[in-house]
Design a protein that fits this description.
alpha/beta; Rossmann fold; 5-stranded parallel beta sheet; 8 helices; 13% strand
């Protein structure tokens, strides 16, 4: 099975650890692989605030056993310190303090948008925090659209509309929270990323 496409591309005019987002939503346009180069720069000693190179946000039921597992393995093999939440047990109503710390301590957040991503309130809470970190501390966001149309994420249509219909019914007393989820999805989907629709086996 082929390794996933390179997600961390260095650029000479930027500080060595900052990735360059491919200005396309197609994986056909990416530059030559440079995981090893990214690993060298991301793994270099630093006095920065970061505890992790990458934070992975994903819907476990959708991608844990396929695409996200392949991606995580490739990042770790390249020496990139990656945080992945492996907790599969039921959680509370809100994102945990540990996850908030992991997001805030990561240089880069890779968000894997899948068909049922928006059905998870924990994923949506993660995304709200990721967008906050991007806008306040300069965290880099790399969105991946896995078997989902970017416009569905941006406009909350398709399976995302169904998810929000359920959220609005359940969280009638927390509509401000629901609105933050919508804003975060719209903003995140406006960034250049990778459209991985109809890619066999991730």
């Amino acid at each position: 099975m082929q390794a996933p496409p390179p997600f961390l591309l260095t650029q000479k005019r930027q500080p060595p650890w900052i990735p360059c987002v491919v200005q396309s939503t197609s994986i056909q346009d990416h530059n030559k692989p440079c995981f090893s180069m990214a690993a060298q720069t991301l793994s270099s000693p630093s006095k920065s605030r970061w505890n992790h190179d990458v934070f992975l946000s994903f819907r476990g039921e959708d991608t844990r056993k396929n695409f996200t597992d392949h991606l995580y393995t490739a990042l770790v093999r390249a020496g990139i310190h990656t945080f992945r939440d492996d907790e599969e047990l039921p959680r509370g109503e809100h994102i945990s303090t540990e996850l908030l710390k992991a997001i805030n301590g990561s240089r880069i957040s890779i968000v894997v948008f899948s068909k049922d991503y928006a059905s998870s309130r924990w994923c949506l809470d993660e995304l709200v925090e990721i967008m906050h970190c991007k806008n306040t501390i300069g965290q880099t966001l790399l969105p991946i659209f896995y078997d989902v149309n970017p416009s569905d994420v941006r406009k909350q249509t398709g399976t995302f509309a169904k998810a929000f219909s359920s959220h609005e019914e359940r969280f009638q007393a927390e509509m401000e929270r629901v609105q933050k989820w919508r804003v975060a999805l719209t903003e995140a989907a406006n960034y250049s990323g990778w459209d991985l629709q109809n890619i066999a086996n991730g």
